[in-house]
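User: Okay, second chain of the day. Same drill as before: sequence in, structure tokens out.
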Amino acid sequence: MDKRYFTIGMAGHIDHGKTTLTKALTHIDTDRLKEEKERQISIELGFAPLYEDDELQISVIDVPGHERFIRQMIAGVTGIDLVVLVVAADEGVMPQTKEHLDILRFLGVKNGIVAITKIDRVDEEFIELVKDDIFAELTGTVFENAPFVLVDSISGKGIAHLKSLIIESLKDQQMRDAGGAFRLPIDQVFTVKGQGTVVRGTVFEGVVAEGETLTILPKGLIGRVRQIQVHHKQANQAFAGQRTAINLTGISKEDIKRGDVLVSSDHFTVTNTIDVALRIVGDLDYIVKQRMPIKCHIGTAEVMGRIVFFDRNELLAAHDEILCQLRLDEEVVTKRGDRFIIRRPSPQETIGGGWVIDARGEKYRFGEKTVSELEKKKKGTPKERIISALLEEKSLSFTQLIKRAALEEQTLKEKLKDEAFILYNGREYTLQAIVLNIQTEMKERLETFHKEYPLKKGLNKAELFQGLELDYPKGLLEYAADQAVTSALLGRAGQFLFQVDFKPHVPNNWRKRTEHMLENLKIDGMKVEYLSNYLEKAGIPDLLVHDLVRFLEEEELVVSLNDQFYWHGDIFREAVKTLRNGTEDEFTVGEAKDILGLSRKYIIPFLERLDSKQLTKRIENKRRWQ
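Assistant: Same drill. Structure tokens below.
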């Protein structure tokens, strides 16, 4: 996309000529409300197209200057790329001028031009005094080196120069991100007869097109883009940096309010607890106390809440960023890097502002340890933030990572190519280190298990995962186990997992007794006693019997005829060979009895075992060799 889109704002004290200057620049009167014209002040935000060519499109927001309309002023300034600070030559810097400067600083607006208006009302000497006053106020701020332009909106003096300067200032400026997911904080909602619900705002990021389905957060309402307008002209798309009006179908005007956010994806976080880096104004009138009620302006939302400090209980002055938390009464839509303003609700004053460190704040303990953790979170590189999120959650989808790490989609895609990160099951990401930790835990568990139960092959997955599922998702455990088998870190036999160098065995302290028991079993041949008798005579304890018998069966050292009679493995195999050699393809129970010389007490269980091993198949009163 070659064309770039910007929105500039007019800011300054009431009655310093912002609206008149906007009209002189654009030939559009942005005071459209009856009350505004009657009272000659701006109440709502005013918008107008300033300039457009093949490379640039520039819009103007006329921000209300009156103290009572600070809320609308913040909503407008939040989306601007350059500010024209308007100061009347006949009054100079006023209280709202200073407050607007603070707000602009907190919202991160760095590109500015100072327009000294109404120059025809004063002489040149007075203008120089006003310039000195403004320069003193701007010293130490981001507008310290901003150019000054002298204008008179009525006579037109300096207007062409100001417009030219605005255009030149934006030519080299980077526009907002049009590559990420679409986001538009709503600052106006209205209806148009025959069209339905229309929302208006500045596109923060991304691109929106006609026909797209969008979500309104935080409510989660779904609507479709019926029509897009930019400066009252229909458009197929709207881009980051543009003022736009979007006609939505499927949503009524009553369901939307200023402060809601129109988005195209589920990448955005809805939250009421935000970790922030806060700076305060230089001349607070009142002490800011722990958990004091505040009014938070973020995006175009204005919500009540409380400020929570972790290293102090109050402040009146601070030169550095304060890492703290905002706990809001309502949910807002935000992500890392978003700017905010906080104000005291009564008596009203701007306290400060800053940027969002983490939109998913949690409740932390008071103390330096929490501040230290917030500092790490604040300074973290994209890779460090991804690692931090995965260490905390163990496994996250791409969409969840965008929210947790607060990264743009393309940035996250690039970072996830690092070998430190693993995509498993086609949907979830984890860390190579986490997989290795899981595999180490599995190996250690199996080592302990083998020592305690040397007769068993190993643990089935359900048993091995037990307890680990409290810390890791089951799918991640499955992946770690599969990778451990593939890399020969662990072995697998059916449902059992075991250490690769492990073989089931009789414990050394019971080996001789087991061998003695097997010898006696073999001596008795096919006419054995109950197995329990042999175990008892050998002195095998009851606690060992179950595992020992299962081990002997798995090793084919014994074969069970039923739950009471067991033959030595060699005897069983010899009996099968003798019977097969003495019969045709089919044989009866009587024939088997005669060949092996056994009573029904032994022959019936023996033949049933042949059936279960699929060596034979019973057909009515006969059996056929398989």
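The two ends are 74 Å apart (CA to CA).

User: Thanks, on to the next one.
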